[in-house]
């Protein structure tokens, strides 16, 4: 029993395993060395204290800075220039109640980024960033060196600029919530790097959701509520999967001069609700002279029951948008049409709400020379094939093709009913 208890006593508290512990007594802020227990630095400015701890950890080749629960007033930018720095808070739920978590709150009228990251293998975890409606970014990963940036359970609020601007690659965001981003063309997340993984992302009341400029990024299990526009994709071979986009007042998703992106398992509700018959749930367009091609939109549910409806669920803006694939989606609620296919080689098949192929058997009654067929397709079919089921008395052809029907005609009335098999395709 004695050996067991002495072993327990030798176990370190997880907090004590941090290289540095930052805490406040409500007046000053302190940085304590996690190994020696000595308070090495203190100041009335939390920015200086956190920066001190971050720099010391960086000089040691990496390690953890633990920021205990409380509200920390930040007066400038915290720069991370060395690899392997981990900053961990004491929970991300305490906005005005410090006993619930760690809050880093930008001071009034300080229009600077809170975190500037120039290093690899940096982690930010378990705290809240309140930008206090200053025009700086919450997190800015600079071009060139940032790699393997990891964000875990971070809550960002009250931003008047792009909240996260990430130029890095191989990073991962899990459990990031961003609320209340204001300012025209400011995005909650601007992702310019490649091969990043984002999951369980929630964006609420943001002007713009995600600007996806990089390539081969994977974003899954995300929710974007009440944006102006939810997602803009200008990069290539990215994946958006299993997400909810609720109530974009503009277009829901814009694919702009991009190639090979996959959109699957998305639910896009009430797109373009502010103005009837103006915006699309998914809009496919060029970026300058670069068209959008070979994008795959499969297995999504796009719907609206609002007074103002989207113009199209999916629209190719012009014939330059080509070779796209639109398969097995469910479309409910639009003003002009479910799909606007412009590209000659674009494939649209198997969607509910936009029927692109149909077939059946029509009967030219004895003594008659024609029958009208209601084809049930989304628009007038350019291709209609007919095959008589029996010996016709004369020639057969198709005429009067409209958005709802076509006529099968013979030059000689049959003496008995003549069945004709038909196939029509948009």
The CATH class of the largest domain: Mainly Beta
Q: Radius of gyration, rounded?
A: 30 Å
Report the portion of residues in β strands. 35-45%
Shape: elongated
Helix/strand layout:
Blueprint: H1 2-10, E1 20-24, E2 29-33, E3 39-43, H2 46-59, E4 63-67, E5 70-74, E6 78-80, E7 85-88, E8 102-106, E9 115-117, E10 123-130, E11 139-141, E12 150-159, E13 164-166, E14 172-174, E15 177-181, E16 187-191, E17 197-206, E18 208-212, E19 218-225, E20 229-233, E21 239-241, E22 244-246, E23 253-256, E24 262-264, E25 267-269, E26 282-285, E27 296-298, E28 301-303, E29 312-316, E30 325-327, E31 330-332, E32 337-340, E33 347-349, E34 357-364, E35 370-374, E36 383-388, E37 396-399, E38 405-410, E39 418-425
Parallel strand pairs: 1-4, 4-7, 5-8, 6-9, 7-10, 8-10, 9-11, 10-12, 11-13, 12-14, 12-15, 13-16, 14-17, 15-17, 16-18, 17-19, 18-20, 19-21, 19-22, 20-23, 21-24, 22-25, 23-26, 24-27, 25-28, 26-29, 27-30, 28-31, 29-32, 30-33
Antiparallel strand pairs: 1-2, 2-3, 34-39, 35-38, 36-39, 37-38
């Amino acid at each position: 029993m004695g050996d067991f208890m002495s072993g327990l006593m030798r176990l370190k508290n997880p907090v004590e395993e941090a290289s540095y512990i930052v805490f406040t007594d409500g007046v000053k802020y302190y940085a304590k060395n996690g190994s020696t227990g000595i308070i090495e630095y203190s100041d009335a400015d939390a920015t200086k204290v956190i920066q001190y701890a971050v720099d010391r950890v960086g000089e040691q080749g990496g390690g953890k800075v633990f920021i205990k629960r409380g509200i920390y007033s930040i007066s400038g930018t915290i720069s991370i220039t060395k690899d392997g720095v981990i900053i961990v808070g004491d929970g991300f739920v305490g906005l005005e109640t410090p006993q619930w978590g760690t809050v880093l709150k930008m001071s009034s009228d300080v229009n600077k980024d809170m975190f500037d990251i120039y290093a690899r293998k940096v982690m930010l975890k378990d705290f809240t960033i309140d930008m206090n409606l200053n025009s700086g970014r919450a997190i800015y990963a600079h071009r060139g060196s940032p790699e393997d940036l990891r964000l875990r359970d971070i809550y960002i609020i009250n931003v008047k600029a792009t909240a996260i601007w990430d130029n890095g690659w191989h990073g991962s965001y899990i459990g990031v919530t961003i609320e209340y981003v204001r300012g025209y063309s400011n995005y909650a997340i601007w992702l310019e790097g490649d091969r990043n993984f984002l999951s369980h992302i929630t964006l609420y009341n943001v002007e713009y959701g995600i600007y996806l400029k990089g390539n081969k990024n994977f974003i899954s299990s995300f929710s974007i509520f009440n944006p102006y526009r939810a997602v803009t994709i200008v990069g290539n071979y990215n994946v958006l999967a299993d997400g909810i986009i609720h109530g974009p007042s503009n277009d829901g998703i814009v694919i702009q001069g991009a190639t090979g992106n996959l959109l699957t398992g998305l639910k896009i509700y009430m797109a373009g609700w502010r103005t009837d018959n103006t915006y699309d749930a998914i809009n496919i367009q060029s970026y300058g002279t670069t068209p959008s091609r070979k994008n795959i939109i499969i297995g999504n549910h796009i719907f609206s029951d609002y007074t103002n409806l989207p113009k199209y669920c999916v629209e190719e803006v012009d014939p330059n948008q080509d070779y796209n694939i639109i398969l097995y989606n469910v479309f409910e609620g639009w003003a002009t049409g479910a799909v606007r296919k412009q590209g000659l080689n674009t494939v649209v098949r198997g969607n509910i709400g936009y029927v692109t192929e149909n077939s059946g058997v029509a009967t030219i009654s004895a003594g008659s020379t024609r029958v009208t067929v209601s084809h049930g397709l989304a628009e007038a079919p350019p291709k209609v094939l007919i095959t008589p089921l029996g010996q016709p008395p004369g020639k057969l052809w198709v005429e009067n093709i409209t958005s709802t029907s076509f006529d099968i005609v013979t030059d000689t009335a049959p003496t008995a009913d003549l069945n004709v098999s038909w196939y029509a395709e948009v």
